[in-house]
Amino acid sequence: MSQFPWYVARSAGLVAWALLAASVLWGLALSTKILSPKVRPNWILDLHRWLGGLALTFTGLHVGALLLDTYVHFGLVSVLVPFATSWHPTAVAWGVVSLYLLAAVEITSLLKPRLPKAVWRKTHFLSFVLFVTSTVHGLSAGTDTGATMLRIGVLMTASLFAGLTAARLVEAAVPSPKPNPRPRPTPGRS
Question: Which of the two residues, 146 and 17, has the higher pLDDT score?
Fold first, then answer.
């Protein structure tokens, strides 16, 4: 077989990371409410969900192409069990953990109407960990990490992630003001 599966695996991995990063950043923009009130929140939520689903799809393509590749010879155990491969075992383990985190976040998001809100919320917070683990995986296992433009893109994305995460933490720490209740009309007055 040719090197085609390897090229598909590399490109699908990069696209999966970019879609995941976009979904996480979009979710942070939604949860921090930094976007203009003119932007419809349901449109933002739809885009966030769509990006997450595409990230899962391209992750599946990434893993599937690795299974078809004849250069490194990944088996099913290698892509599903951390440290089960001899090729960069730690770097691949970050990817395996990322795969499970992404699956957990996506599955619970699809089941959100059927889950208790606390379960969905706690699972969705794994997106922060997922961004970090997938970034470490890409930078340690990826054969394209030496590319200057890729490093600049990852640095810019990670900086935006850190800034939005900080804004989210500050917003969560500061209690939101409660609106003043409307005064009740007193009987006998018009």
Answer: 17
- pLDDT of 64-100, one tens digit each? 999 999 888 899 999 999 999 999 999 999 999 999 9
> pLDDT tens for residues 106-144?
999 999 999 999 999 999 999 999 999 999 999 999 788
Task: Please report the DSSP string for the chain in residue order.
Answer: --SHHHHHHHHHHHHHHHHHHHHHHHHHHHHHT-S-TTS-HHHHHHHHHHHHHHHHHHHHHHHHHHHH-SSS---HHHHHSTT--SSSHHHHHHHHHHHHHHHHHHHHHHTGGGS-HHHHHHHHTHHHHHHHHHHHHHHHH-TTTT-HHHHHHHHHHHHHHHHHHHHHHHHHHSPPPPPPPPPPPPTT--
What b/e string do you get for 10-46 counting C-beta neighbours within 10 Å, with b at 16 or more? bebbbbbbbbbbbbbbbbbbbbbeeeeeeeeeeebee
The rounded distance, in Å, linking the Cα atoms of 60 and 102 is 11
Q: How is residue 178 written in tokens?
A: 């409660």
- Domain-wise residue ranges, the chain: 4-142
Alpha-carbon distance 118 to 160, whole Å? 27
> In terms of Cα–Cα distance, which of 126, 14, 100, 29 is closest to 65?
14
